[in-house]
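Appendix B. Raw example, untouched.
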Amino acid sequence: MADSSLLEGVAANIVDTPRLRTRLLSGGAEGGAPVFFVHGNVSSSRFFEETLAALPGEAGYRGLAPDLRGFGGSETKTLDATRGLADFSDDLYALAGALGLEDEKIHLVGWSVGGTIAVRYAMDHPDMVASLTLVNPMSPYGFGGTRDVSGAPCWPDYAGSGGGTANPEFVRRLREGDRSEEDLNSPRNVMNAFYFKPPFRVPKEREEILLSSMLSTKVAKGNYPGDATPSDNWPNVAPGKGGMNNAISPKYCDLGGFAGIDPKPPVLWIRGADDALVSDTSLLDFGYLGQIGVVPGWPGEEVYPPQPMVSQTRAVLEAYVQNSGSYREQVIEDCGHSPHVEKPEEFRQALFDFLGEHS
């Protein structure tokens, strides 16, 4: 599939699998060791395009970056949130099979929610994973509504997580394809304020491509953001059963069992030091927003503390080490949620060195 906006060395194709018609970007060496790049929420594979273009072909890597269901150019199919991230993991497994990689170990690189999808894939298919790189990953206990490093819920119904927690004005702007800079709710401003650490901005032409990537999100029943259930517990909304933001609710997403998988691929955890999205003080977490007075009625830290997202990831990875696994944490200073975009050279150096150690 020709696309004149793609960087040199990056190609796009449609791959039909038994589960999903998938748009796939690829780069690097033909026939090289496969490296799957998994994007996050409200984005697409194009956030990894520069990384694909920079893959060292002489090192023998083949970068493969699919659009997840309901994002980019892939097919939109209802996401069963009650399975957590399993639909995404199953889609990736079907894609590996369609590409003839069912007997090969693959390297997984996942950003944000994509990092947690990669963790789920490793839990489902540990024998198929050569290495795991987590880039500012969502907590293994999902997004919102948990109180401690073990992922214990603040409320029994997991209120404060799920489809009803999305900003309705942002959702409307996504649906309408808004490209303005009117206020913080516009997708462009959300990207520049939350995906990246201000005042960082990509060049204008690239910004338009990444904004289009965000706007490719299918705002639809069963996709983004998902349905909601009223709750008597603050903030009075609990998860529904379909769509992206319910799939990442801790009601359905609990990947603490990653520490016990066998075999255990090596893990590289890369994160921006100033991430405003995945943080122990996340600006999208109701516990933190209540604490700082942005959301009224907060019941207090004893009942609903901020979710310790980074601490939860570290606790699971430390348990992984206790079970004879290994991980390395690399913090990139002066960087937000997207090291591969904000600090590409530092990110690539860390990634390529890690792949070289485990190929």
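End of appendix B.
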